[in-house]
Every structure is written in C-alpha cells, then in structure tokens.
Amino acid sequence: MALIKNTDKNIQLSLKLLNNKFLEIKESSHESWIPFALKLDVAGDCYEYEAKRGAVFTLYEINRLIGELEKNLGTKEAVNTFEEIEFYSSQAYFGMIFIDPLEADLVEVEFWFNMDVLSQSETKGYDQGYRFAVEVTDLKSFIAEIKHELKEILIKEG
C-alpha cells in the first residue's frame, strides 16, 4: 500500500491497487480497469473508498499519473522546478493537483473528493478538498509503491 503523510504528519493518504473481481485487463489501456482502495485521513476525519466499493482507474490514467509525477519530480530534484499536474479519475472519484510551492524539497497537493460519489448520493452538488505539503522524497516513494503494485497486478494477469 502506498502511503504518504504531509509535512506536519497529521494528514495521511493511502492508495492500494487491487487484484479483485473488478480488475479487467484488455488490449486498450483506456478499457482496462484497475481497482483501488483509497483513504484520506485528515486529523482523524476519514474519507474512504473501500475495496468492496469497486472504485477503478483505467490503466491509461494510472500510467499517466505515474509518468507525469516521475518526470516532474526528476525536474524538481535537478533544477528545482515543478510543472503543475492535474489528475482527475475518469469515474469522478477524486481529483489531485500537484503544485510547486517554490520550496526545494516540497510539493503541494490539493486533493478533492466528489462528495456525490463518495457519499453514494447522500450529499450532492459539491466537491470537498484539502491542500497540504509533502516531501519530494515521500512523494517519490508513494509513486514507486503504486508503480510496484501495478507491475505485480499486470504480471499476474499476464
């Protein structure tokens, strides 16, 4: 499971790619579905997509997220610049925006939940989000773990 904490250690984001009944690998990366479980804990308030919910990424979008973050984190380490990245899951589960806070070892993360989807239509009409800073090294580890989990799933599915 990929875990990352903010610099104050009071926000934790966990993401686990899953090999379960919702997994579907096809020839097209746009039609291949990778299930996930996700949890954002903000000072004790938890927002979660559990494995049983069937939340999925397309293979295309998870590869895009990994690739863009790896490229931009390399640039951040080499020349201390980071191009903003916006990532929104195609099924509208959540969005993330990665921003350069103009500090050498940090990246700012905005994380937005679609409250309609998260609450299974109990709450409608808005997103709820949080902004927090993470260490570059921690974000690299987070992405490396996601990449490892994806590789393991794809190897098993052959």
UniProtKB/TrEMBL annotation:
InterPro entries: WapI (IPR056510). Pfam families: WapI. It comes from the Bacteria. This is Uncharacterized protein.
